[in-house]
Each structure stands twice: as C-alpha cells, then as structure tokens.
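Annex B. Sample input.
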Amino acid sequence: MQTARTATVLASAIGFALSAALGAQTSSIDSLASRIDPYVAKSRVIVMTDIANEPDDQMSMVRFLVYANRYDVEGLIASTSTWMRRTVRPDVILTLLDAYALVQPNLERHEKGFPSLHYIAMPSTPDGQQYYLATWTGTSGDRFYKNAPGADFSTFTDAWVTEHIRSKGPLGKLYPFPCCIHEGDTPAFLGLVDNGLASFMSPTYGGWGGRYVWRQFYGETRPSWTQGGVSYPGNDNSRDAVEGSDGKTYTSDQATIWRWRTAFQHDFAARMDWTVKDVREGNHNPVVVVNGQAGKAPVMVDAVVGTPVLLDATGTHDPDGQTLTYNWFFYPEAGTGIPGRPVVTRGLRPVVAAGQVGAGSIPSAGAGGPPEPQTRVIVENAHEVKATVLPRVAGIAHVIVAVEDSGTPSLTSYRRVILNIKPRP
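Annex B, continued. Sample output.
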C-alpha cells in the first residue's frame, strides 16, 4: 500500500513538474511570438524546396528569382517531400539559375542589387545546424480548391500567364503549366518583399503573403503562427473582410492573400518585362513618401481619440513620370492576435443582453444579433494625396496607403502607418 501510495505521489509530482515545464516553455514561446521584429530592407532567406515534386514549386522559384534583389539570399536547398521521398533535384534549380544568369544583367539595369546566385546547397546535415531559417512551405491554391468566393482570378488564367510570364525570355520559358495549383509555395516568401507593407515584421500585419495569428491547433503540443481563430466579431482570427470583384464583402482566410492579387501579379509581370526589355520600356514602382518620411519602413504616429491626424503623401513620385492614384484605408485586422498586445486598449464593448446576465448561461444578444465592435478609425479624403484620420478607439491601428501608377502593367507601392492612439484626456 505504501509503495503504491509513494508511486502515486511520485507520478503526481512528475506530472506536475512536466506540466510546469511545458507551461514555462509555452510562456517562453508566447513571449517570442509577442515580439515585433525591426524593419529591415532585406530579409535573410534560405529556401528549401521539393522542386520537381510538382510544377508549382518551379513556378514559385521563377518568381523568387526576379525578386532576388529584395532578399539576402543565403542558400537554395533541394529537399525531399511527401511525394518525392528518396530523390532531390538540385539540377532543376541549377537550370533555373542558368536562365537567371542570362537575364540578371538586364534586371540590374532596372533595379540595383540582383546578386549572382550560382550556388546550390544540398539537404542539411542530420543535426540541422545549417538551415534552421528555411521559410519555404506549401500552401493551398484557392482557385484549384474553389474556396475563395469574391476573388478575381483574371491574372491567373493560362492566357494571362502565358502572355505576361511564359513568353518573357529564358526565365519565362521555364515557368511551367500547373498540374493543379499555381505557386502553392509563393506566400511563404512573398511577404518578405520590401514593398512598403512590412508584413515581415509580424505575421499579424498582413501583406502579399497573407495574415496569420498565434494559436494552438487542437492536438498540437504548442501554438504557432497559423490560420483560424474565433470568428465572433472582435476576436482574434486570421480572416480578412474584403470587397470582392462583384462588389460584395467576403470574409475568409483566403481573402488575406487575394485582396492583393492584382497588385502582386502585375508586379511579377513587370519584373518579367525587366528580364527582356530596356529600362525605358519597362514600368517601375512608385516611390512613396508619408509625412516627409522616405523609405519603406512603417510610419509611426502618436494620436489621441477624437483628435484628427493628417497623413500627407506629398513628395510621392513615379520614376517613369506616370500619373498616380491614392487609396488610404484602415486595415482593422492588422496587428490582431499578437500575444499580450491587444489592438484595443479597453477591450470590446459588451454584448447587449436580452436576458439576465450572470444567470449561469450565455444571455441572448437581443434583436438583430450581437453588435459589431465600434469603428476604431475613420479615414477621410481617402483618394487624395492628403488624408485625414479620425481615431475613435484607444489602441493600435494600421492605415495603409496604396499608390498605383498608370503604366502597363500598373504597379502599386505601399506605406503602412501605425497609430498609437491614447484615450481622450
């Protein structure tokens, strides 16, 4: 009996210790997740790709190479995968690098910084010491899976892609037709492009590669940056509400990417033009200045509830002398889901209950359902060079300005303004 009791106590102690250790580990991970990385012009990147597993990996690599000047590329690694367990194909990467080498001088004429990339890394050593920073992972294609109502797929038709990508020189010739999804791996690196959205500072910021939240999936041992979350209005989740091509508003995970699709496809097409065209024939991105601040880092602004804030894009210009249009918009989902960093200082307003609160159950929300959270920011003169922002709720708010030129294809540059809004005195 004593032995059994001792064993029980010991098992309980071990369980408590393990629980405490796991709790401490989770706390440490959450602390890391709450960090907002500093802005850098070039993110350090190592690519792991199961290239030749299916066509979309090669498609993604073509796009990656025409943005090579926007990264600090540390290595390209041919890897195995579920569908290619015993083979790696560095030869395919080398073929792409040969084509890149042919067009790299012309790319350099359009924009400086395109590196020589004639190197290849084989799979990592068993201890994993070499390539722990790999960022290339697979994602689903919303067109193939038909799970993105409201999305515009006009820039992903075979005809558009052939005209603007496949027909453009030696690199374009290596952009294959898909077996199923287009560029399933591309969102893993597209958010690292320094286009003014600076979404690489935090997965919650949202950008060309999508927007994500910190949460623990059922069955997982710890949280991670992923999709999902609670859909109840005002709660953290990875879904954006975006106006679709039909003018209706759609809310989905896929919308965090397709909302930018026309812009990033046009940008890709322009860079494929750079591989074959003279500088005078190509289109180049607008240069955005906000409140006198040049560059692409977020503009930080202190604000107070009820006090208007002027955002001024004077000084913004187009290197090709084209006409520019402006669109300032509040991005309400941006920044939500960072552990310990709520975007609303005083929380959401409570649900209006039709029944008695505290009666041991969730009360009715009343006629019309639960109220939407209060609008946190109002943007006025949204299509002018100068916009006015009226803060209404204390906390953190992200306002984006998208500046589009009149070239062919039209190109868009951005700046993110992050407002730290204090309560009214």
